[in-house]
C-alpha cells in the first residue's frame, strides 16, 4: 500500500488492535482515509511520526516501509516478537521477509549453516534471536527497528520492560487494576469482522480469557481443546468443566496415532530446527479451531508474566539456598559431592547431583542449567569432530547469562522472568504459536501479552507472584471472582506430550532412518555410533535421553528437508 502523499510504501504482517482509536486521532488532525484498514492507519501514522509511531501501536506486527524520497528502508517488529521478521544484509545487498524460505529463493543468499546456531538449538530447543540456522540470515530483535539506505544501517530499540519499578499499592488495588487491564486487553482483541473463538486447556490463563470473553460476547464463545490418549498428559476434563461454566460451544480433538503421518510436514513450517514437542498439539488444536473460526484468543504469557512455571519456584529456592554458603565452598566442594552422587544409580542421587551442580555456579548460570535441554556430557559424546572444531569454545549459556546480568531488575525472580521474556517466550512460545496457527490460516491473539499487561505485571512485587509454594499467586487471586478454586489451584500440567512413547512407538520407523543409518543426514554433524548407542538404550527402556533423541530427530528432519 502507498501513502496518500505517494512518498511511502508499506509491507505489513499482523494486526494493530487499537487502530480505530489511532485512526480517529489522525482524522481529527486532518488525515483523510480511503480504506478501513489498520495498514493505512499505520502508514499515515509513520509519515507523521516516523519511528515514534511505534510507541502508539498495540498489536502484533512486523512491517517494512520504503521512503521513495530519502531512499531509506525502515523495518520494525512488535515489542515481544509475536510476528517474525528476517533479514539478510551485506555491503551490496539487503533483503527481508516474514519467512526464511522466502529469503532462500534469492540467488545471492548462500545457505551456509551456522555452527553456533546448531549448538544453540540443541541446548535451547530453538535458536535465540538474532541468529537463525543460517550464517547470513538474521532475526530482527523484538521491540527493535532497523533503518538502512544501502550505505548506513542503524538498529534501535524502542521498548523494553522494567522490573525495577515495583508497585507499593495494596494487594486489593493491584488485583483490581490487573483485572481491568486484562479485561480491556481481551475486549480489544475481540474486535473482529470474522468468526472468533479461543483455545481452552482448562488452566488458569486460558480459562480466565474464556471467562472474560463470555462476559463480552453476545453468543456462546467457541472453544477448542486438545487431548491425548494418555491420562497423564490429558487436560480435556478440565477444559470441559470450564466450557460448561461459561456455556461455550466446545470442540475437542485427541492426538492419537496421527503424529508420525504429520510430523515431517508440520516441521517444514518452521524453516529452521525447532524442538519444543508441544508444537504437535499446537498444530492440531489450531487445525481444530480453524474448522470453526478464523481468529482464536489464547492464554500465552501468563506463566512468563506471573511466574507460573515450576522452574521459577525451584530456581528461586535454589538461589536462596545458594546464598547460605560461601562462594568458595560452593565452587570447590559441591562439584566433588555431585561427582560422588553420580556413582549412586538411584533417582534421588541423580537429583542431588543436579542440585549440587546448580548450587556450585552463579545464579545466572544456574538458570541457564535450568533452561538447558541437552546435557553437556551427552553433547561431548555425540558431537562430530568437524562440527566441534568450529564451536569447541562456544558456550550457548552466554545468551541466558547476558540477559540475566543486564536485566532492569533488582531481585532474582524478576531477573529470570525478564530473561525468559527475552529468550524462551520470544524464541520458543511465540514462534510455536505463530507458525502452527499460520500453517492452518488461523490468527492467534494473546491478551496476556498486551504490552500494558506485561508492563503492569513487571511492576507487581515478586512476593505476590511466588507466595510460599503457590505459583502465579496474584493472577489466581485476581480471578477468584470468575473461576472456581478447583480450576485455579489444580496442579499445572502444561502442554506436555508423551514423547518417550512416541519415539518408541509410532515414530520408531522414522527415527530408525536417522539413528540406525550411519550415513544419515545427522552424520554431517554427529558421531553416529554414539547417537546409535543412545537410541538402543531408549529401545531397551532407558528413557533418560528422550529429549536429546527428540532434538536429534527434529534436526535430522530439518537437514532432510532443507539441506538437500
From TrEMBL:
<dbReference type="GO" id="GO:0005524">
    <property type="term" value="F:ATP binding"/>
</dbReference>
<feature type="binding site">
    <location>
        <position position="38"/>
    </location>
    <ligand>
        <name>L-glutamine</name>
    </ligand>
</feature>
<dbReference type="GO" id="GO:0006529">
    <property type="term" value="P:asparagine biosynthetic process"/>
</dbReference>
<comment type="similarity">
    <text>Belongs to the asparagine synthetase family.</text>
</comment>
<feature type="site" description="Important for beta-aspartyl-AMP intermediate formation">
    <location>
        <position position="300"/>
    </location>
</feature>
<keyword id="KW-0547">Nucleotide-binding</keyword>
<dbReference type="InterPro" id="IPR029055">
    <property type="entry name" value="Ntn_hydrolases_N"/>
</dbReference>
<dbReference type="Pfam" id="PF00733">
    <property type="entry name" value="Asn_synthase"/>
</dbReference>
<dbReference type="InterPro" id="IPR033738">
    <property type="entry name" value="AsnB_N"/>
</dbReference>
<dbReference type="InterPro" id="IPR006426">
    <property type="entry name" value="Asn_synth_AEB"/>
</dbReference>
<comment type="pathway">
    <text>Amino-acid biosynthesis; L-asparagine biosynthesis; L-asparagine from L-aspartate (L-Gln route): step 1/1.</text>
</comment>
<feature type="binding site">
    <location>
        <position position="226"/>
    </location>
    <ligand>
        <name>ATP</name>
    </ligand>
</feature>
<feature type="domain" description="Glutamine amidotransferase type-2">
    <location>
        <begin position="1"/>
        <end position="151"/>
    </location>
</feature>
<dbReference type="InterPro" id="IPR001962">
    <property type="entry name" value="Asn_synthase"/>
</dbReference>
<dbReference type="InterPro" id="IPR017932">
    <property type="entry name" value="GATase_2_dom"/>
</dbReference>
<dbReference type="GO" id="GO:0004066">
    <property type="term" value="F:asparagine synthase (glutamine-hydrolyzing) activity"/>
</dbReference>
<keyword id="KW-0315">Glutamine amidotransferase</keyword>
<dbReference type="InterPro" id="IPR051786">
    <property type="entry name" value="ASN_synthetase/amidase"/>
</dbReference>
<dbReference type="Pfam" id="PF13537">
    <property type="entry name" value="GATase_7"/>
</dbReference>
<dbReference type="GO" id="GO:0005829">
    <property type="term" value="C:cytosol"/>
</dbReference>
<protein>
    <recommendedName>
        <fullName>asparagine synthase (glutamine-hydrolyzing)</fullName>
        <ecNumber>6.3.5.4</ecNumber>
    </recommendedName>
</protein>
<keyword id="KW-0067">ATP-binding</keyword>
<dbReference type="InterPro" id="IPR014729">
    <property type="entry name" value="Rossmann-like_a/b/a_fold"/>
</dbReference>
